[in-house]
Specification:
The protein has about 270 residues and is α/β, with parallel strands linked by helices. It folds into two domains: about 5-215, 2-enoyl-CoA Hydratase, Chain A, domain 1, CATH 3.90.226; about 220-265. Helix content is about 50%, strand content about 15%. It has helices spanning about 30-45, 70-75, 85-105, 125-130, 160, 170-175, 185-190, 200-215, 220-230, 235-250, 255-265, and strands at about 5-10, 15-20, 50-55, 115, 120, 135-140, 140-145, 180, 195. The strands form two sheets. A six-stranded mixed beta sheet has the order 1-2-3-4-6-9, with helices on both faces. A hairpin with a 2-residue loop joins strand 1 and strand 2 (about 15-20). Helix 1 (about 30-45) crosses helix 3 (about 85-105).
Length: about 270
C-alpha cells in the first residue's frame, strides 16, 4: 500500500478510512495531495478486502481547497519553461487534466465512498466530496464553491458532478456567488445526507454507515454502484438493459446462496464477495 506525507490510511475490518492529514495547513490541497490521492485510491479500489471507504480529515478543517502558495503557478497557467504561447497552453491543459484525474480516481472507486466533512470545505474540497457517493457533515461545516471569488472557473469536477446532487438553481447560486453556506443549508439543498453535532460524531456516523455497507455482499454493492453510474444521463430503458446484462453475468454467486441460507437459518449472512 502506498504511503503519503499528507494522507494516512486506517483500516477497521472491511472499512478503510483515508484521512486528509496535513492539519497545520488546514489540509490545503498541494502537490503531494494531487499526486498521492489517485495512487492510494487505486490501491483501495484493487484491494478485495476493502468494501467501503471513508474520506475524512484531521485538524480543524476538512480542506481549505487548493494550496495557492504551492499551486499558484499551475493555476495561473505557467508553462513550465515553454517558450511559445501554444506550448504554455498545452502545459496548462496537461496540468488541469492531471488534477482532474486525481479527483476522478475517487469517483471511479468501485467501492462506495463516504465523505465525512467538518470545518471548512472550500473550492477543491467541493470537487472532492462531489466525487464521493455519500456526504455527511458536522454542524460547524462551511461549504463554498469558491472559485469565482478568485477569478477561476471551477474545473475539477464540481460543475459536472454537483448538478447530479443538488438542483441546477442551487448549483448556479453557489457557483456564481462563491458564497459560504452552513451545514444546515447544505442539508436543506441535498448536498449532504445528514448533519451531526460535531466532527467526532460525524466521523463515528460515517464509520458506522461504511460498516453497514461493508456487511452486505460486496458483489451486490459494487454492482449497484456500477449500475447507478451507468444510468447517469441515460434513458430508463438503457439502464434496465445494463442491469439485466449485469445480473445475468453476476447474480449466480456464492453470496446469493449465503443470503438465502442465512435467511432460512435465521442468522446474519457472512458474505465473502465470491
Amino acid at each position: 500500500m502506498a504511503t503519503s506525507e499528507v494522507l494516512t490510511l486506517e483500516r477497521d475490518g472491511h472499512v478503510a478510512t483515508l484521512w486528509l492529514d496535513n492539519p497545520d495547513r488546514r489540509n490545503a490541497m498541494g502537490p503531494a495531495l494531487w499526486s498521492d490521492l489517485p495512487v492510494m485510491m487505486e490501491d483501495l479500489s484493487e484491494d478485495d478486502d476493502v468494501r467501503a471507504v471513508v474520506i475524512a480529515a484531521k485538524g480543524p478543517a476538512f480542506t481549505v481547497g487548493l494550496d495557492l502558495k504551492t499551486m499558484g503557478s499551475a493555476v495561473a497557467g505557467g508553462g513550465g519553461g515553454a517558450t511559445s504561447e501554444a506550448a504554455k497552453r498545452k502545459a496548462a491543459l496537461r496540468g488541469i487534466k492531471r488534477l482532474q484525474a486525481s479527483v476522478t480516481a475517487v469517483a471511479d472507486c468501485p467501492k462506495p465512498v463516504i465523505a465525512a466533512v467538518h470545518g471548512w470545505c472550500i473550492g477543491g474540497g467541493i470537487d472532492l466530496i462531489c466525487a464521493c457517493d455519500i456526504r455527511l457533515a458536522s454542524a460547524d461545516s462551511v461549504f463554498s464553491v469558491r472559485e469565482t471569488k478568485i477569478a477561476i472557473v471551477a474545473d475539477l469536477g464540481t460543475l459536472q458532478r454537483l448538478p447530479g446532487i443538488v438542483t441546477r438553481g442551487h448549483v448556479a447560486e453557489l457557483a456564481y456567488t462563491g458564497k459560504d453556506i452552513s451545514a444546515g443549508r447544505a442539508a436543506e439543498i441535498g448536498l449532504v445526507n445528514q448533519v451531526l453535532p460535531d466532527a467526532e460524531a460525524c466521523h463515528k456516523t460515517a464509520a458506522e454507515m461504511a460498516a453497514e455497507v461493508a456487511a452486505n455482499s460486496p458483489l451486490a454493492v459494487q454492482g449497484t454502484k456500477a449500475v447507478l453510474r451507468a444510468g447517469e444521463g441515460h434513458a430508463v430503458a438503457e439502464g434496465l438493459d445494463y442491469v439485466a446484462v449485469w445480473n445475468a453475468a453476476f447474480l449466480a454467486s456464492n453470496d446469493l446462496t449465503e443470503a438465502f441460507t442465512a435467511f432460512l437459518e435465521k442468522r446474519p449472512p457472512n458474505f465473502t464477495g465470491q
